[in-house]
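Action item from last meeting closed. Structure (280 res):
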């Protein structure tokens, strides 16, 4: 079924009484090249988030062993059973991905593919990474600006807490851009496909929770120096905050956007060490 062809897609959606919901981030692909390119390397077990009418699912099912597609919009279930009728290796789960137990989907590891609904891109990506589920890699289409943020380096204007946090779990790469004209309805922004390949954490820290608190607080107030942000989060005096940075060889006035994950790990460990030295 040519699911990206408007002459097929529109009548199919109409037949099932479907109309697009902006709130659910529904922008379906209408250029056959794009889902084919996203699914190019799919193999083994695949989780798809938000199959929509099934154009990417179709390409994934043609290549992978088993596909589980999680779709929150119940109105699409009858569409999907028609569009994917020829496949016996696909199951569609009517659920919200953020409430789905990722350990229950497959025996063994899996990869994730999606043209992600833009309203929950970062929560979904963090949910996947933080779950500890055996995910090999995540290939997803996101808003172009989000792709820039996820793949930024320290010092780039797009570098932020989410960039550093993702770096703890995965290596990121931008694969290709997709302009807004490739979707129905046409969104206001362009998109890009990125791949996150899971890695073992590149830093080891005394407390993972403290590391993520340091990262988050470093970007809490972008115009403030790191010391001022840390002071607030960890109830440090200015002198204590500056002493930590000086001991580690950072300037007292350094800002969060200049520091790498390894730098944050050193700061987090120093804060932990001080906690351990405090009288009970
Ligand atoms: N994969 C299709 C395509 O590329 O044409 C549709 C992509 S569309 C951008 C996003 C899809 O995610 C929609 O089908 C939407 O209903 C679904 N969705 C939105 N929120 C979701 C959630 N929390 N869990 C699962 N699916 C969701």
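Sequence:
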């Amino acid at each position: 079924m040519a699911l990206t062809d408007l002459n097929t897609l529109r009548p199919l959606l109409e037949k099932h009484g479907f109309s697009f919901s902006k709130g659910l981030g529904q922008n379906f692909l209408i250029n056959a090249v794009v889902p084919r390119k996203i699914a190019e390397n799919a193999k083994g077990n695949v989780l798809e988030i938000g199959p929509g009418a099934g154009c990417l699912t179709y390409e994934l099912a043609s290549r992978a062993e088993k596909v589980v597609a999680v779709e929150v919009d119940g109105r699409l279930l009858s569409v999907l059973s028609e569009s994917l009728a020829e496949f016996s290796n696909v199951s569609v789960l009517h659920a919200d991905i953020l409430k789905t137990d990722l350990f229950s989907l497959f025996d063994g590891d899996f990869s994730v593919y999606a043209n992600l609904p833009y309203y929950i891109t970062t929560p979904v990506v963090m949910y996947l990474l933080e779950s500890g589920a055996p995910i090999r890699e995540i290939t997803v289409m996101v808003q172009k600006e989000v792709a820039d943020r996820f793949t930024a380096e320290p010092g780039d204007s797009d570098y932020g807490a989410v960039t550093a946090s993702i770096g703890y779990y995965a290596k990121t790469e931008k694969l290709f851009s997709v302009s807004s004209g490739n979707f129905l309805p046409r969104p206001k922004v362009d998109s890009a496909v990125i791949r996150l390949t899971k890695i073992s954490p590149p830093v080891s820290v005394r407390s993972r929770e403290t590391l993520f608190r340091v990262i988050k607080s470093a970007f809490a107030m972008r115009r403030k120096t790191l010391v001022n942000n840390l002071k607030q989060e960890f109830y440090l005096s200015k002198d204590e905050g500056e002493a930590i940075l000086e001991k580690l060889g950072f300037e007292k006035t350094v800002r969060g956007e200049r520091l790498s994950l390894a730098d944050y790990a050193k700061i987090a460990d120093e804060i932990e060490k001080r906690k351990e030295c405090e009288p009970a």
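Note appended to the action item: The radius of gyration is 22 Å.
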